[in-house]
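The instructor's notes for this session suggest beginning with a concrete chain rather than abstract definitions. Hand out the sequence below and ask the class to guess, before any prediction is shown, which regions might be ordered.
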Amino acid sequence: MVRLIRALVIAAALLGAAVARAETPPREVVADLAPTGRLHAAINFGNTVLAQRDPASGAPRGVSVALARALAERLGVPIEFVAFPAAGKVTAAIEANPDAWDVAFVAIDPVRAAHIAFTAPYVVIEGSYLVPDGSALAATEDVDRAGVRIAVSGGSVYDLYLTRAIRHATLVREPKGPAASFDRFLAERLEAVAGVRQQLVAFAAAHHGVHVLPGRFMAIDQAMATPRRRTIGVRYLRRFVEDMKASGMVAHELAVSGHPDATVAPPAPVE
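After discussion, reveal the predicted structure:
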C-alpha cells in the first residue's frame, strides 16, 4: 500500500510538471475560453464517476475537476467551479444564459449539440438498469415493455437517449438528479431505474432487494464542452483532451478517485 501511494504521488507530480511545461496557448484561445479572465468550469456532482466532494473538506475532486484545473493552468488564468447536481442542470443553464459557464464535462448527445460544442470523449461509461430482486426483467432487452416504469434523471444523457429509443415502457423523469431518481424508484415501487453503471452498482450494494441487470442500453461518451459560439476555444479543447488522454492523466485521475473500471476513451483525430 505504501508503494502504491508513493507511486501515485510521483505520477501526480510528473503529470503536473507536464501541464506546467505545456506551451502557453495563443491569446485568442485564452480570450475565447476565459473571456472574463477567469475560467468558469461547470462540474456535475450527480455523476460520481467524474466528480466528487472530498468528505473532509468538501472540496471538488475527480477526473473532470482535474481536467478543469489543468486547463486553467495552461491558459494561465484562475479557476472558478460552478457546481450542478445533474448534467441536465448544466445544459439547461447554458440554454438560459450563454455565459453561465465557460467549459463543462457532459456526455455527447445530438440534442445538446444545439447549444454546445464537444470534444471527442475522454471517458466512456455505461448506461444500465437496476431492478427489484424477483423482477421478471432479467436482461436489458426485457425492459422496454408495456407497463414497465423506468425512473430516470431528467435531462441526463440516458434520459435523452431513452426518449428516442423506448417504444413501450414509460419514463418517469426525476428533475432533482440521479440520487433522487433512485429514491423515487424505491418510493414508488417502479419496475426499473436507469443510470450510470457504477452508481447503480454502489446503490445495489447499499440497498437490499435490488440488483443491476447485465449488459448496457448505451455507451455514454463523456466529453469536454463549451458554448457553440466559441469556435476557437473548442478547437483548442479538442487537442487538450487528446493530450490529457495520451499523457495518462485521465487514467491516473480515474484511479486515484476510485473509478479505475471506467474506460479511457480511445484516441481521436484532431484538426
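Then share the key points. The first strand starts at residue 39 and ends at 44. The chain has nine helices and twelve strands.
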